[in-house]
Amino acid sequence: MSQTVDRALSILPLLAQGPADLGQVAERLGVHKSTALRLLRTLHEHGLVYRQEDQRYRLGARLFALAQEAVENLDVREIAHSHLVALNEQCGHTVHLAVYEENEVLYIDKVESRYPVRMYSRIGKPVAITVAAVAKLLLADLTEPERRVIAERLDYPMYTSRSIPNAGAFLKELAVVREQGWATDLGGHEESINCVGAPIRGADGRVVAAMSVSAPNVVVTAEELLTLLPLVRRTADTISREYSGTTPTKKA
């Protein structure tokens, strides 16, 4: 049964690359066409795949509906969204929310910039884990042994001359982020894009998500973007309090 489930689930990433016919699916799975057809029919019955008029299969609408429902039911996203919108209205720049899941950092919410020059990023898309501000915040909260294991496992693509080049440099960056409580990506992924971010914490103080504000150099300089850091941190703190069910301490 587990092998059948595994094969059926293996069809989904295949079809995510584009429509495929029965023969292509069977070849990719390494099974007879009759087996592939049986799996496809089951997925079709559940709305997870759809057979087109040309007899090729593609991902079904039900799959997208389930994905959207899952994203919407992530508590931190539901709680954070109105605050992300408010931050976007104040500064005008792209705002992201991200979480760490299954060894990836994923965007789970995004509020677009009001400016015509925008970032290419999508909800559900993994971020560049070695350079993104949200990734640094999420990984910095892990224990030192966990950080070291992850750092030594990662590749370090040099997206730009400012990208983090190796595990040693990454661990040093995570230590700084852990100490200061905020992170940046100043041209590390794209030369023209800068980003500042802050962590969102649960009741136990652990980081459950990270948020950031990003903008291209043609809109604001890196120095100008950094002036928004207090606002970003206040927004993250507000979300943290609401998420964890606590209230700010009143000053005497």
UniProtKB/TrEMBL annotation:
Q: Which domain of life is it from?
A: Bacteria
Q: Which SUPFAM superfamilies match?
A: GAF domain-like (SSF55781), Winged helix' DNA-binding domain (SSF46785)
Q: Which residues form the IclR-ED domain?
A: 62-245
Keywords for the protein's UniProt record, in alphabetical order: DNA-binding, Transcription, Transcription regulation
Known PROSITE patterns for this protein? HTH_ICLR (PS51077), ICLR_ED (PS51078)
Keyword Membrane in annotation: no
Offer one Pfam family short name for this entry.
HTH_IclR
- Please verify whether the record's keywords include Methyltransferase: no
Q: Which Gene3D superfamilies match?
A: 3.30.450.40, Winged helix-like DNA-binding domain superfamily/Winged helix DNA-binding domain (1.10.10.10)
Q: What name goes with this protein?
A: IclR family transcriptional regulator
